[in-house]
């Protein structure tokens, strides 16, 4: 196992890695809409927050030598499922067919009370 980390995505704030590479599989920890430089929440709505989350995931994928083309599974966690359409629109703009497998669930609360968190698994 090898941790893959980058300063272009928010640093881990607990006992976890931004991602772990094992064999050719990369497991990306959930990203929330934090600015990598300031650590502040980016965006006041689901569209803006999802844009930052996807940028953070892209940075970790790039650090591992990959991109969204390598992603095989994603998990989306929403504070309110009413934001599904807005999140899905931004999410889809970063991906192309064949799309990765995905789960999307509403949760009671997310870190820092953000609106969205997304995790991913990629084959590098």
The CATH C-level class name: Alpha Beta
**Residue share in helix:** 10-25%
Distance between the termini: 14 Å
How many strand segments? Answer: 6
Largest sheet: 6 strands, mixed
Average pLDDT, all residues: 97
Percentage of residues in DSSP E strands: 25-35%
* Relevant CATH superfamily: RutC-like
Strand order of the largest sheet: 1-2-3-6-4-5
What does this structure look like?
- The protein is of the alpha+beta class.
- The protein has one domain (2-123): RutC-like (60s Ribosomal Protein L30, Chain: A, 2-Layer Sandwich).
- The protein is built from two helices and six strands.
- The chain has a six-stranded mixed sheet with strand order 1-2-3-6-4-5, covered by helices on one side.
- Strand 4 (71-78), helix 2 (84-93) and strand 5 (101-106) form a beta-alpha-beta unit.
- Helix 1 (46-63) runs parallel beside helix 2.
- The longest helix has 18 residues, at 46-63.
- It is globular, with a radius of gyration of 13 Å.
- 30% of the residues are buried.
Can you tag this structure with a few keywords?
124 residues; six-stranded mixed β-sheet; globular
